[in-house]
Amino acid sequence: MEQELARGEEERQEGLIEFYDSFKEMFEFFCKNTTIHGTIRLVCSDSNRMKTAFWTLLLLASFGMLYWQFALMFSQYLAYPVVLTMSMHSEPKMFPAITICNLDPYRFELVSEHLVQLDRMAEESITFLYGINTSARLFHMNDRNIHVQGLANLSRSGFKLSQNFSLLRMSDLRSGKKHSSVGFRLCNSTGGNCFYKTYSSGMDAILEWYRFHYMNIMSQLPVIVNISQHEEHIEDMVYSCQYDGEPCRPSDYVHFHHPVFGSCYTFNSKGTDPFWTATKPGIPYGLSLILRAEQKDHIPLLSTVAGVKVMIHNHNQTPFLEHEGFDIRPGIATTIGIQQDEVNRLGGNYGKCTTNGDDVDVKLLYNNSYTLQACLHSCFQHIMVQECGCGYYYYPLPAGAEYCDYNKQPAWGHCFYQLYNRLRNHHLNCFDQCPKPCRESLYKVSAGTAKWPSAKSQDWVRQALRHQNGYNSTSNRKDIAKVTIFYQQLNYQAVNESPLLSENLLLSSMGSQWSLWFGSSVLSVVEMFELLVDTLVLSLLFCYQRLRAKKTLRVSPTIPSVSLALENYRVVQEEPGKGEEGARPSGMRDSTGELQLQPLPQRCPEVLLDGFGCTKEEDVGQE
Q1: What is the mean pLDDT of residues 474-501?
Q2: E strands, 175-302, where?
Q3: N or C: which end of the chain has fewer CB within 10 A?
Q4: Cβ distance 376 to 437 under 8 Å?
Q5: What is the 3 state secondary structure string of 140-205?
Q6: What residue spans of 436-574 are helical by DSSP H?
Q7: From CA 301, how far away is CA 139, in angstroms rounded?
Q8: Going by DSSP bridges, is the β-strand pair 93-94/277-278 parallel, antiparallel, or unpaired?
Q9: Residue 443's closest CA among 183, 38, 83, 94?
Q10: Which helix (H) or strand (E) holds 113?
Q11: What does the pLDDT read at residue 582?
């Protein structure tokens, strides 16, 4: 019999789903056949409870450490960290866009009368603050104005310069020392909320005060002013232009006017002309310019700098000269070496960036490609139009808006400076709405300067410029400048973001931890999944059997039977056909016809069971 049972156990084969007789049998089968190390000790050591408990605790501790490591890995993965990888590339590339401005803004005839009044107000303020009379030196008027056809003089339109923003000197005590500052007072529309826009430097205060009035005057001009008939020719500013030893062509530059930095030219603005392809590094193969760098005193208080503003930037990008760029001194030869860096950001979960600005909520007010500065300026202008009711003069306008004018909006200055402070302190949501570009080129600049022309060469240099370019200045080396911009080397550095923990690396790390704590592989995970499936199936089968058994007991008729626990009771059934004399039963039937069991003497209590009767043995014997 035992041999047959052993043979049947050997012949038993593993099926698709194991139907075990008990959970214990299923667990023993798993521990004996799994590839997870240590589980077999739970079965082999079942006779030694101490060893079984030790290995159970060891396996549970290993599971805890494993999933603790898994939690750390997933928390690091869901943080989406990045690592910067740097690579060097060497190949011919396009020369960057170069913007130059003469720091000499136009004095439009439409607003010339009010600009004269503003100069007089500035003269009076400087005299009041410092006791200096500057009328003969600072405010020498030039007769050249730009006339805009079809528009009457501004004096007929009713515009008046406001006297409510006078410059004041304020004193305060700090650390026992007396400090003074200069500024002007700004109030809201009701006049109840006021503050002073102050500067520790009187020069900075005068420049900001002048710009504030200047913006109100310039807001009277139409949004689009056609100055094509009056713009300066490039020869009036650029005496010589060469790139890679070849003279520049008229198609190599575009002209625009900046309200502060004057007449500006951008070379290689589109970046599509093969002429501007850089094939060699070095000074002889760069862009060489000889520029007029004198100050015409058109609007002197907009800037205290004499020279030329230069900015190096990407193609199809708006040059923000107030934030970037550098100044070229007159009488100086400046060599500027550039080194390009390319930054590629991942975006998505790894950081906020945009490819071309189409997915940005802010509507750009500039027609060029997306940049962070263009988005910030557009965002600020939209908020200012919404909260102040007008737009900042130095930024483009949204559709249907107008530039600020304190004759129409007396409190716009108070609103503007409050908003600008919030933007500078990152309290506006513009920095949240304006992501960085996912790909951008950055230019590192290194410059060197020398006097030019030298004392011995300045005579023949000026004579050559006079005959070739109409140069007619008699000053001593203080009105021209030379600048050379070149690639230091053609190889550039690419900085790329890559995930610190990718999906492949995450799975590899999880597999390493699994092998460390259990010495198993991914197939062991499948075995554990199989164990869970078998446990679920076995539980469902046991539940189904139990429910079926209860249903069978509820439907089937009553079958006389005696439990082993009732071994002290005897069952006597009535024999059909016998009367009371023939066979005296030990049990009596009740009104329902069921048999009453009588307990045996001193062996069982009196109990009533359906269909059974308990009688005393001595009574049965007598019968």
Answers
A1: 86
A2: 177-187, 194-199, 238-243, 246-247, 253-258, 262-267, 277-278, 287-292
A3: N
A4: no
A5: CCCCCCECCCCCCCHHHHCCCCCCCCCCEEEEEEECCEEEEEEEEEEECCCCCCEEEEEECCHHHH
A6: 458-469, 503-518, 522-555
A7: 9
A8: antiparallel
A9: 94
A10: helix 112-130
A11: 45
Alpha carbon distances (Å) from 275 to 207, 338, 405, 567: 42, 19, 46, 115
Q: How far apart are alpha carbons 434 and 11 in whole angstroms?
A: 73
Scan for tokens 């139990």, then name that residue: 546
Check residue 616 and give its pLDDT. 43
Q: Considering only CA atoms, which of 180, 80, 168, 185 is closest in space to residue 128?
A: 168
**Using an 8 Å Cβ cutoff, are 442 and 340 in contact?**
yes
Q: Which residue matches tokens 């997915």?
A: 359
Distance CA 277, CA 95 (A): 6
Pair of tokens at residue 183: 């500024």
Q: Give Cα separations from 494 to 93, 281, 357 (angstroms).
A: 14, 18, 22
Distance CA 615, CA 598 (A): 4
Three-state DSSP state, 445: strand
pTM of the model: 0.73
Amino acid at the residue 385:
V
- Cα first-last separation, the chain: 47
The fraction of the chain above a pLDDT of 70, given in percent, is: 76
Tokens describing residue 427: 């309290």
Q: What are the two backbone dihedrals, phi and then psi, of residue 109, each rounded to the nearest 5 degrees?
A: -65, -30
**Which helix (DSSP H) or strand (DSSP E) does residue 433 occupy?**
helix 430-433
User: Would you tell me how many other CB atoms lie within 10 Å of the CB of residue 171?
Assistant: 8
pLDDT of 68-109, one tens digit each?
Answer: 999 999 999 999 999 999 998 888 889 999 999 988 887 777
- How many angstroms separate the CA atoms of 467 and 465, rounded? 6
Query: Which residues lie closer than 8 Å to 415 by C-beta, 6 or more apart?
Result: 188, 384, 387, 388
